[in-house]
Amino acid sequence: MRRPLALRLYLSMTAASSATGQRWAAPLDLARPEGPLVWIHSEAEACQDTAACFAKHLQKQRDDIAVLLTTCDPVAPRKDAILYDQIPPETQQDTAAFLQFWRPDLGIWMHSGLRPVLLDTATQNGIDLVLANATEALTLSTVARNYRGVRRAILRQFKLILCLNNAAKLTLAKLTADTVPIEETGPLQLAPPVLDCDETLLEEYRTLVQNRPIWLAANTRFDDEATLVLAHRQAIRTHHRLLMVLHPEDPSKGDEIAQTLGSTGWSIAQLSKGQIPREDVQILIADVPGQLGMWYRLAPISFLGGTLAKQPAADPFQAASLGSAVLHGPRTAPFENAYTLLSDTGAGRLIRTPEQLLTALNDLLQAQVAASMARAAWEVTSHGATATDRLISVIETTFDDMGY
Fold first, then answer.
1. Is 20 buried (19+), middle (13-18) or exposed (0-12) by CB count in 10 A?
2. What is the tens place of the pLDDT at every residue in 125-171?
3. Which of 168, 250, 269, 349 would disulfide-bridge 163, Cβ 3.0–4.6 Å?
4. How far apart are CA 42 and CA 115, in angstroms?
C-alpha cells in the first residue's frame, strides 16, 4: 500500500538527517528466544506498570509466548520472565536494527506517543500492530507534529484499536476514516495474576485457624520485624487469641527468626519444621516457599514488608486481589502508583509507627471494616479484566492464525 504524502515527506526527512546522541545497540546479555514473541511498547511512564501487568497475565495464560517490553528510558533488571529493552531512536537505521534483532510477531502500542518511523518500519516488515488503552490525546514526536497528516497515516497502519472510552472511539474513528476496527474496551487491568495456591492445604489451614483472628506480615525483612512484633505484642493484650503469620522474604531466615522470638518469650510454630498453629501459638513463622498466595487468602489483614525501610516493596495488588486489606509503610518503590491507588480508594493504609499499626489492627479486626477495605481492593484489582481478556484473545487468535 502506497504511503500518504505527509508520511513519505516525513520519512524522507528522517532518512536524510543524521541521528544525534546514543544509537540503539543490541543488548549484550539478551537474545531473541525461539517461538512467538509479542512486543509491547509503553512510552508514558505512568503506563509501564500496566504494560508489565498485562505481560504477566498473557504469560500466565500462554507460557509459550515471549514478551518484550520497551520503554523510553533504560530499564533496571527485574525478577520476572519479561524481556526489557530501550526503544530505539526515531531513525530508520536504528529502528531497522531493533526490529531485525527482536523480530517481533506482533506489536502492542499502549496509550503512547506515536513514533512514525518505528511504526512504519514495523508495518513494512509485516508486523501486525494493535493500539491498546488508546485515548483521543495520542501525540506525535516533536518533529513529526510539523507534518500534517502523519498522525492519520500512522493510525491507519494499526490492525485494531482498543480504546478507553466512547470519546476516544469517536475521535479515532474520524482520524482513521473508519478504515481500522475500533472497540471500546475500557482500561487494561492494573493487578497482576493472582498467586497460585494449593486448595487442599488451604482448607487444612482454614480449619486450623478458623476460630482465630489472624493477620499476615508478608515478605518481611530484618528491618521490619521488630516493629511488627512490637505491634503484635500490644495487640494481643486486647485480642488474646490473635495469630500473627510472619512470612519472611527469605525463607532460610526462618530458624534465626524462630530462635530470636522464642528467646523473648513468644509461643511460636515454624512451618518448615512441620509445626502447626495450635491454640497457644502466638506467631506462626511461614517459612515454606510458594505459600504466600495461601496466606493472602487466609488473612483478612496484610502488612507488606520492605515498606518500612529502604528495601524494594512487594506488589500490593497481590494481596489486594485476594481479599486482604493492605497495610504498608512509606517506602513503596517500585510500586508507588499501586500503593497510592489503593490508599486513595480506601483499600490500603499507610503505617509509619508501631502505634499506628496497632490502631490499624484494632480497626481492621472489626469484621465490617476489613470487609469494606477488601471490597474496595477487589474493585480496584478487578477493574479492567474485560479489556485484558479481549487483548489476550486478539493475541491468541493472531498466533493461532500464524500456526503457533
1. exposed
2. 999 999 999 988 877 766 677 778 899 999 999 999 999 999 999 99
3. 168
4. 11
